[in-house]
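A reminder before we start the practical. When you read a complex entry, don't treat the lines as separate problems. The point of joint prediction is that each chain is placed relative to the others, so the output describes one connected object in space. Small molecules and nucleic acid strands, if listed, are placed in the same frame. In the example below there are two entries. Take a minute to note the order of the lines before looking further.
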Amino acid sequence: MRRAALAAAVVVTAATAALIVSVDTQAEPASADLLGEMTGGSTTVWATGRNAFSFPAANLPDDERTRFVIGNSFFKRNWVETPASTTARDGLGPHFLARSCAACHMHDGRGEPPPWQRGISDEEPLALLLRLSVPGQDAHGGPKPHPVYGDQLNTASVQGVKPEARVRLRWEPVHGRFADGTPYTLQKPIYQTDRFGYGALGKSTLVSPRIAPQVIGVGLLEAIAESDILANADTQARQPGPIKGKPNRVWDVFAEREMVGRFGWKANVATLAHQTAGAFQGDLGITSTRFSHETCTLAQVDCRAAPSGAEPGGVEIEDKTIEDVVFYQAALAPPARRNVRDPQVLRGQQLFTQAQCAVCHRPSYTTAEGPFPRLTSKAVSGQTIWPYTDLLLHDMGDALADGRPDFLANGRQWKTPPLWGIGLIRDVNGHMRLLHDGRADGVLEAVLWHGGEAEDSKQQVLRFNEADRRALVAFVESL
Amino acid sequence: MTLKFKPTLAAALFAVAFAAPVDAQTAATPASVAAHYATLVHANYQDTLTGAQALQQAIKAFTAAPSQTTLDAARKAWLQAREFYGQTEAFRFYGGPIDDDNGPEGQLNAWPMDESYVDYVDGKKTAGIVNNRKQAITKKALASLNEKGGEENVATGWHAIEFMLWGQDLSETGPGNRSFEDFVDGKAPNADRRRQYLNVVTELLIDDLNMLVKAWAPGAKNNFRAKFEKGGNESLRKMYVAMGSLSRGELAGERLEVALASQDQEDEHSCFSDNTHRDAVTNAKGIENVWLGRYVRADGSTLQGPSLRDLVAAKDAALAQKTSQQIRSSVLAAESIPAPFDRAIVQGSAGRAKIEATIQSLTAQSNDIVAAAAAIGITKLTLVQP
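Here is the predicted structure of the whole assembly.
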């Protein structure tokens, strides 16, 4: 009897460390995963190391594993320029950022900006995309593309076509102190663009940097019911305090309707299918049925004259291939948490709740179903998952603001990113660069960049002593 | 309870000891199984290193005096070394020395490879690192270029060496046929850089294999093996994760199913040398080695000791038997895949049925492996019971 009551209390209050420690002293039934150790429910894989983000859902049926590996092969495969000896994978560009999905999502993981230690970077950022627009909206309420450069700046091109521009990065130190006097230094990125292929950007251009995030668990995120996301906003609206998350509402070309956004740093995409086909077109220059035109604008004459990898009137990637790539991503499993019963981690979990982090980084959901049955395995449905996000937009303060609206997101709002897998980015990608443009090196720096609706939470963390700061980081890195 | 089962257990242990060679009569316990596994892993990496050192000698001889004879010798040494490396792939997927956060797996064996990233290809005569004279060819430079800007931008490892030795496979019936003159000054542009590339990339391969041998060396206080041997059930869990992941995801999936679906040579693991059929066999054998605790060394001797099979047999003899049979079937099925693999995958080839049978057997085996793990109380895997 006492155990049952205890379990309920832990679930309802999102757990104090004292309760969790006492739970830990007893043998747990396998079904009660009170600590969210099985991050993705039955999809969870017990994996660390370089491959940690690359496993299919543990419960993916055998027959669907074939589709998973085929999708994977197109996710990592380099696309080549037309003409080429291969017809299955030609059509790269004319303008592009990368030759494959995995170029930026290396090992299904996360990209990083060039290191700040070098001052002005001498290399093009890879996995860092600059979104562009001009004031106004497109037909669906989205950003209005730049008349010459479109909606993103592509730094690479095929032979005979000019790249759109070069992106350079400079870093400025930002100094601060914790309440206990310990100093810290953050690095603020300054983006510079030059060597324009088609003239200057113009003063009114809005620019927003975005880094490629890890891909794990996206099928589960897609299977969270819209009503759960809207309920997050309602709950936050009713509670006192500054945290008032807003859902984004975006146009989805696959569903052909407006939906609640959940992918992208501003929740500016609703479905994986739209995200994937959009990235094939925008980032690789690969056209498909739903994104059927190269992104060359009228002013980009050389781009428009470049050969296509498709037959006249056709597209460069078949629907089936796109669908396999979507299916693949939707089946990538989140790895299990590590060290869930470590006392420091449990202390950190208590602090995470206490500092109101869990209000936006909502720990848990039970999934419904993905939006398109033929694109998502049933393995992701009905799972108790622990992504630590509300999928809502929040004002994050001046320091992070990009000043570029994106559907309902204003220039100060960002979507709460999921935290699952965050402690394994180092294993998979050998770095720990966080936030929308990878400016934060490690969890604590990411926390210190928080402002706006999260200002009070950050102020609490600034008052933590060193042991508590370490505990908070240990908890987040156990996710 | 204990007394009642004792005779059966003793009989089982006796049977195991009796079946094993005289030098390995240790009873199977989690600790003895983990310890013997470590011995087996070390021996397999050591044999691979020895093979790679022979490859290095052959490559030095080839680049010092390029000729068809010296090139053939280097190709033969590569194929020989691969026989042992292929078996070590059963030690991947659990974040061990090969693929932890610093692991060299991507530097050793990344594939498929965009060959134009390294050297010229048909229709692109000046492509690649070799033909970019501004790019330094050092171990450090090649290591940092490997997988930069894409998982197919493979600059190092077995398949980069393979590409340097064989070149693109443009033949219907045989492997790549790069001329030794690619390495002769005056006969091909940047021949000097090709020689340098081949030597440097082989040095890097040796470095990485040396690291793996050290990580698994016996008697060290702080290496991975020392921790692994004390790991108890966690170490057994790792062994199962490796066997299951290689069976289903990597071998059946990425290496066979993808190629079968695309019918594209680009999806062939060792596409330059046409050695993919052997990759399938050595991978399948590597899994069997771990399961049986048995490994046939390069010198022909057999290493045999306490195994996962023994532990499972003590709990569920029928399941152990079924798993052993399925794993054996996979090895046999893989051995029946005809070479060259790039012809076997095309529509209408009799090879397709052989590949399909191998996939089916590996899939069945991955499920047996999960059940065998569960039989000894191990559940936290990358696969679950269907």
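Discuss with your neighbour: The two ends of chain A are 30 Å apart (CA to CA). What might explain this?
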